[in-house]
Design a protein that fits this description.
The complex is a heterodimer. Chain A is elongated. The longest helix of chain A has 13 residues. By secondary structure, chain A is an alpha+beta fold. The two termini of chain A are 21 Å apart. Chain A is 27% helix and 39% strand. In chain A, strands 5, 6, 7, 8 and 9 form a five-stranded antiparallel sheet that branches. Chain A has a four-stranded antiparallel sheet with strand order 2-3-1-4, covered by helices on one side. Chain A folds into two domains: 75 residues, Alpha-Beta Plaits (2-Layer Sandwich); 72 residues, Alpha-Beta Plaits (2-Layer Sandwich). Chain B is of the alpha/beta class. In chain B, the strands form four sheets. Chain B has a six-stranded parallel sheet with strand order 3-2-4-5-7-6. In chain B, strand 15, helix 18 and strand 16 form a beta-alpha-beta unit. Classes of the chains: A alpha+beta, B alpha/beta. Chains A and B meet through helix 1 and helix 2 of A and loops of B. Chain A: It is an enzyme of class 2 (transferase). Chain A: InterPro entries: Acetalactate_synth_ssu (IPR004789), Acetolactate_synth/TF_NikR_C (IPR027271), Acetolactate_synth_ssu_C (IPR019455), ACT-like_dom_sf (IPR045865), ACT_dom (IPR002912), AHAS_ACT (IPR039557), AHAS_small-like_ACT (IPR054480).
């Protein structure tokens, strides 16, 4: 199962190395990892998406992360109300003849074309990973040349609803 | 202009300006460091220059590995952090084994490595190694100093991190220019680590849960590990055990935390533990683990481990709880504080009289045994004799292997902080340098380094330090001409195919020892009065090396083969 772990860390040299090293040392599997500055100076927020077999494993991951001196806070936010986003750039084959068709295809995803050449366009899309997967599937028949994805970044919503099972939202 | 003048006068008030290397010395003095283990080299020359007339006590080991194992021995016995200095590159990489050993056995170390100058870091300069990257997974924390002004804060944090919570090694990498640059020194800043808040006070509700579980239990057992020793909680453990009449098994590293001659002591648990301890862990209905981390060498196959039991796990490190064994009563806290709380609760004793009688019976019926021989010396017998002549009060250090298990089984530790062994990492070459550190930490106790002929040859150069400092260490080599434990496994599990486990040629250890200036003797069963010879050596007040030729095909029993449950022991009876 997929779990999303949010952590705040001190912005020190080598922190990312410590976190990823911990994962490989303990044989945990990282699906994606994103890092950037948080609201406080000197503090960064990391969002980790991990694939685990059982609950016990995610508990061990959060405990081991917590042991790192530079890690201030670790939360498994999977079961919370959260906002999570990923950005993807997709370079897809496109001749003038199919350009309008593509445009119509990506519009419901609120994706946009941000570069055009004679044979291809670059589509930019943001949203939850599932939404991006769906769009990629739709674009595949046209011929995808390159994909660059950022991985998920996320935190909890300002208002928490009562505990829900699995958060499903495509937008 | 006037602002400038003001600035100058304000800095003039605290003219504590000094070089990075002097800051280091000053910080070590403020931390009341008694001894530094180290080895100089290019990148730490400024530090060694400052050390020259600092008045600090420095021990020059003959290899960095010897230095860090000595620091581990010092830390284990003194309870204070062991301090190590090594140069960049090879000096630093030679520390890797010791750092890993200290990490897995939770020993507090503060280790300084030199680094090439900041300006050439990353250029593959002479004696450059990315020691920060190399040691990240094997240290509790590590630092590379980027500004000389940060050095005092970093050292203060390092000592704090190494010694609090679950102890461990902290490494500080100091580029050569940082050691030379000057900056303001102050050491009275508070430690401010928002991400590091170890919790040593146990949760009251969890304590109550355990008290209730004990009152219901019919077959309770305590598994006491090294956490009891780190927390200085032996007295509390004895008190609690006597209050509740719960029997105790020790882990390998926990030996001495509970007296071996106590009626409620079951012996060591695990792969080469006693039948009584292992069957108690297999059969119990309540397992209370105190400061032990359920290493696979203790638990055997987890499928069969304490399957009928409610598990209470007391540990200072929350990540250990539930890591290997599912836990119903988790208690995060310092072992001593937890035991104090438990004693205070004075809970109702469970109805476990029958259980205790059964275990006492097992102890009678299935003691540790070996076959004595008229023609060969038996290592178990040697350890019993050493125990007799040191009244069970010596500090014993070992490497890893058969001799280590025999020492654990037959020395019968009755006091805490007398046992220094490489448990988690199983490091050959640990015992001799660790003995040096242990003797420096405790000048009064007799220190016996029990070694195998294999492990001894990995760090034997440290004999030089023993001679130089005239440390009255007794180096006892149980010489069987082989890597004994490897040989044992090959005999049992690899159809007696002794692939590269026997030494075809051995140096003359007696001559070798004499070359280092240390008195030495070879002991064989055929020697007239060998027992007297052994006694004289062990009870002398000088450094001595004994090359004891023991039975070559003696195996360590009883044994739980790896992959088996604790109830599937072999070699329990002769």
């Amino acid at each position: 199962m997929k779990r999303i772990i949010s952590l705040t860390v001190l912005n020190q040299t080598g922190v990312l190395n410590r976190i990823t090293g911990l994962f490989s040392k303990r044989h945990f599997n990282i699906e994606s990892i994103t890092v950037g500055h948080a609201e406080t100076e000197g503090v960064s927020r990391m969002t980790l998406v991990v694939n685990v077999q059982e609950e016990k494993e995610v508990e061990q991951i959060t405990k081991q992360l917590n042991k790192q001196i530079d890690v201030i806070k670790v939360t498994d936010i999977t079961a919370h109300s959260i906002v999570s986003r990923e950005l993807a750039l997709i370079k897809v084959m496109s001749t003038p003849a199919t350009r309008m068709e593509l445009q119509g295809l990506i519009q419901p995803f609120r994706a946009s074309v941000i570069d055009v050449s004679r044979e291809s366009v670059v589509v930019q899309v943001t949203g939850e990973p599932e939404k991006i997967e769906v769009l990629i599937d739709l674009l595949k028949p046209y011929g995808i040349k390159e994909i660059a994805r950022t991985g998920t970044t996320a935190f909890t919503r300002g208002t928490q609803r009562s505990v829900k099972e699995v958060p499903i939202s495509i937008v | 202009m006037s602002t400038n003048v003001q600035l100058n006068s304000s800095t003039a008030k605290c003219t504590n300006t000094m070089s990075g290397s002097l800051m280091l010395i000053e910080a070590l003095k403020q931390e009341k460091v008694e001894v530094i283990f180290g080895y100089p080299g290019g990148a730490v020359l400024p530090i060694y220059d400052s050390l020259y007339d600092s008045g600090m006590n420095h021990v020059l080991t003959r290899h960095e590995q010897g230095g860090i194992h000595a620091a581990e021995g010092y830390a284990r016995i003194s309870g204070k952090p062991g301090v190590v200095i090594a140069t960049s590159g090879p000096g630093a990489t030679n520390l890797v084994t010791g750092l890993t050993d200290a990490m897995i056995d939770s020993l507090p170390l503060v280790v300084f490595t030199g680094q090439v100058a900041s300006s050439v870091i990353g250029s593959d300069a002479f004696q450059e190694a990315d020691i920060l990257g190399i040691t990240t997974p094997i240290t509790k924390h590590n630092y590379q100093v980027r500004e000389v002004s940060e050095l005092p804060r970093i050292i203060k944090e390092a000592f704090h991190i190494a010694t609090t919570g679950r102890p461990g090694p902290v490494l500080i990498d100091i580029p050569k220019d940082i050691a030379i640059f000057e900056g303001e020194f102050s050491y009275d800043m508070p430690v401010n680590l928002p991400g590091y808040q170890p919790n040593s006070e146990p949760n009251y509700l969890q304590i109550r849960k355990l008290v209730e579980a004990v009152s219901r239990a019919k077959k309770p057992v305590i598994l006491a590990g090294a956490g009891v020793l780190h927390a200085n909680g032996s007295e509390e453990l004895i008190k609690y055990v006597e209050q509740q009449q719960i029997p105790v098994a020790n882990t390998l590293l926990g030996l001495g935390g509970f007296p071996a001659d106590h009626s409620l002591f079951l012996g060591m648990a695990g792969m080469h533990g006693t039948y009584t301890a292992n069957m108690a862990l297999y059969d119990c209905d309540l397992l209370i683990s105190i400061g032990a981390r359920f290493d696979d060498r203790v638990t055997g196959n987890l499928e069969h481990f304490a399957k009928k039991a409610t598990v209470a796990h007391i540990d200072i490190d929350p990540a250990e709880i539930g890591k290997n064994v599912p836990t119903q009563i988790p208690i995060v806290g310092d072992a001593k504080l937890v035991l104090e709380q438990l004693i205070k609760q004075d809970g109702k004793q469970g109805d476990n009289k029958e259980w205790n009688e059964q275990l006492a019976n097992n102890k009678q019926e299935y003691p540790l045994v070996y076959n004595d021989s008229d023609t060969e010396l038996k290592p178990q017998n040697i350890l019993e004799l050493i125990h007799k002549w040191t009244k069970g009060e010596a500090i014993v250090t070992t490497d890893v292997g058969q001799h280590q298990m025999w020492a654990a089984q037959y020395y019968n530790f009755k006091n805490p902080n007398k046992w220094v062994t490489s448990g988690g990492l199983g490091t050959m070459g640990f015992g001799l340098p660790a003995a040096i550190g242990a003797q420096l930490a405790d000048r009064e106790s007799t220190v016996v380094a029990v070694l195998g002929d294999g492990g001894f040859q990995m760090t034997l150069q440290e004999l030089s330090v023993i001679h130089e400092l005239n440390l009255p260490i007794k180096v006892v080599i149980l010489n069987n001409g082989a890597l004994g434990m490897v040989r044992q496994w090959q005999e049992l599990f690899y159809e007696e195919r002794y692939s590269h486990s026997k030494f075809v040629s051995q140096p003359d250890f007696v001559k070798l020892s004499e070359a280092y200036g240390i008195k030495s003797a070879r002991i064989e069963k055929s020697d007239e009065g060998w027992e007297e010879k052994l006694k004289e050596a062990i009870t002398s007040d000088e450094p001595v090396l004994l090359d004891i030729h023991v039975c070559k095909n003696e195996n360590v029993y009883p044994m739980v083969a790896s992959g088996k449950g604790l109830h599937e022991m072999v070699g329990v009876k002769l």
